[in-house]
Structures are given as structure tokens and as C-alpha cells.
């Protein structure tokens, strides 16, 4: 991962750029990384925009070809990438950075980064996976419309060199990806849970506009979040649940 690295001054979105490369019929190597200093149409999950001040943060996309992974095990790719990013960020910063289900990067109750995975399916497998990663590193001020952001700079008051950080994260993603390839699924799942924000804590959630108390007890292989609530165990997908902070 990152052996083949393309650095752009500007792109609409590195995910879009990589997807266009793939549709241009020339082969693109597994592990190719597209990084942009600035994105003018950065995308987040659920149709959100992704804000990133030019030159201050990491915005990049990784091409993976997880053809060995059955479609029903897609969520293991999400767990693998999340672990790759979070463990690298922990090592570099020394901070107890966590994964907010399914794949946000959190420090305390603040969002440091996010991941947008777009899979191209062929038959019963994933042919290409475009893994977009945005991490707030050196940005000091965020626009008001961005929900609870934080950057490493705001926490540690120092700047990080982006190219060195990118290489570390790529190395870490590769290490976790090799575990996925080797079929070490239980280990990946255990480590994902070990780094999960709000695991086993009594917290407030909202579903269908109704607030309730619950405790995250696990995550299914399908990616569903499992909560223990007053009315028993319940499962949710991303659209069905909101985490409520005090
Ligand atoms: C989210 O938390 O909603 C996911 C954010 C993903 C942002 C990254 S930045 C690089 C790549 N290109 C994009 O347009 N989005 C992803």
C-alpha cells in the first residue's frame, strides 16, 4: 500500500479521481494511493460534504482488490481499514484514539477523521474497493457546519508532517490488510471491538426520532450495531441510529 503514490495539488475528490482511473480501462495496481492537497468536492458518508483546509490535512484514497473476501464478509474490510488507521494514529500521536462505529476516527467525543469505502462488486466478490480516508491533522479552525470536529493540532498543539504520516498509515493499513488476507478474522473483530468508542457504556441514542438509553454490546458480521436496551437486544444499521452526546 502506497508503493504507487500519486500526489495531486487539487482534485474534486480523491475517491472520484481513483474511480475515474479505474474506468479508463488501463490497469491500476493494487495498493495505489491517490493523495490530494486540496479537494473541492470532498465527500463523506451519507451524502455529507467533507471539509478539509487545503494543505493542512490528509485526504487520500487507497485502491484495494479484496477479491478473496466473500461479499457477506465486506464488513471485515471496514474493520481492517479502521484498525489500520486508528492504530497508526495511536502510535504517531500517543493518544487513545478510537473507532466510532462503523468507521469514524474519534478522540474523546470529537471526530478526527472518517472513512468512505466504495466497493465495485463483480459476481460474488469485490473487484475494486476505493477506500477514502480523511484525517484532520494540522487544521486549527473548522467551519460551523462541521459537526464536532477536532484535529491533532488542536489537541497536541504541534504540526505533523503529512507525507511521513501518510506512509505510516499506509504501512499500518497494509499490515492489517495482510491479516485479513490470511483469514485472521477473529483477531480483526476482537481488535475492532477493543478500540470501539462507547463499547459497554450506558449511553443515549436515538432511533426514529425517539431517544433511549442503551449499551453497545457488539457488532455483527453484517456490520449491524448491537445495543442492549430496556426492551432487550436491538440491532441497527447506520441510517437507523444516532449517538447522542451530552
Ligand atoms: C465520513 O466521515 O463521512 C467519511 C469521510 C471521508 C473523507 C475522505 S477524504 C479522501 C476521500 N475523498 C473523498 O471525497 N472522501 C474521502
Q: Could you describe the 3D structure shown?
A:
The chain folds into 2 domains: 190 residues, BirA Bifunctional Protein, domain 2 (2-Layer Sandwich); 43 residues, Roll (SH3 type barrels). The radius of gyration is 18 Å and the shape is globular. It is α+β, with helices and mostly antiparallel strands. The N and C termini lie far apart (39 Å). Strand 4 and strand 5 form a beta hairpin. The protein contains 5 helices and 12 strands. The mean pLDDT is 97. Bound molecules: biotin. Biotin (BTN) binds next to helix 1, strand 3, strand 6 and strand 7. Biotin binds next to helix 1, strand 3, strand 6 and strand 7.
Task: State the gist of this model.
The chain is α+β, with helices and mostly antiparallel strands and 246 residues long.
So, CATH architecture of the largest domain?
2-Layer Sandwich
CATH class of the largest domain: Alpha Beta
Unreliable stretches: none
Beta-strand percent range: 25-35%
Radius of gyration: 18 Å
**Largest beta sheet: strand ordering:** 1-2-3-7-6-5-4
Number of domains: 2
Amino acid at each position: 500500500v502506497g508503493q504507487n503514490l500519486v500526489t495531486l495539488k487539487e482534485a474534486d475528490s480523491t475517491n472520484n479521481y481513483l474511480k475515474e482511473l479505474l474506468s479508463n480501462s488501463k490497469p491500476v495496481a493494487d495498493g495505489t494511493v491517490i493523495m490530494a492537497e486540496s479537494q473541492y468536492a470532498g465527500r463523506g458518508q451519507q451524502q455529507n460534504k467533507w471539509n478539509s483546509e487545503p494543505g493542512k490535512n490528509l485526504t487520500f484514497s487507497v485502491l484495494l482488490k479484496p477479491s478473496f473476501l466473500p461479499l457477506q464478509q465486506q464488513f471485515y474490510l471496514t474493520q481492517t481499514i479502521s484498525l489500520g488507521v486508528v492504530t497508526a494514529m495511536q502510535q504517531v500521536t500517543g493518544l487513545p484514539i478510537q473507532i466510532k462505529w462503523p468507521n469514524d476516527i474519534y478522540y474523546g467525543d470529537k471526530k478526527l477523521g472518517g472513512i468512505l469505502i466504495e466497493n465495485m462488486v463483480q459476481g460474488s466478490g469485490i473487484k475494486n474497493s476505493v477506500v477514502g480516508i480523511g484525517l484532520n491533522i494540522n487544521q486549527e479552525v473548522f467551519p460551523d457546519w462541521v459537526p464536532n470536529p477536532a484535529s491533532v493540532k488542536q489537541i497536541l498543539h504541534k504540526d505533523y508532517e503529512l507525507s511521513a504520516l501518510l506512509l505510516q498509515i499506509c504501512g499500518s493499513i497494509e499490515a492489517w490488510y495482510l491479516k485479513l488476507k490470511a483469514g485472521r478474522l477473529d483477531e480483526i473483530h476482537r481488535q475492532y471491538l477493543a478500540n470501539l468508542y462507547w463499547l459497554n457504556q450506558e449511553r443515549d441514542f436515538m432511533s426514529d426520532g425517539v431517544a433511549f438509553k442503551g449499551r453497545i454490546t457488539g457488532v455483527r458480521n453484517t456490520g449491524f450495531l448491537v445495543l442492549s436496551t430496556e426492551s432487550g437486544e436491538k440491532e441497527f444499521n447506520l441510517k437507523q441510529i444516532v449517538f447522542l452526546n451530552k
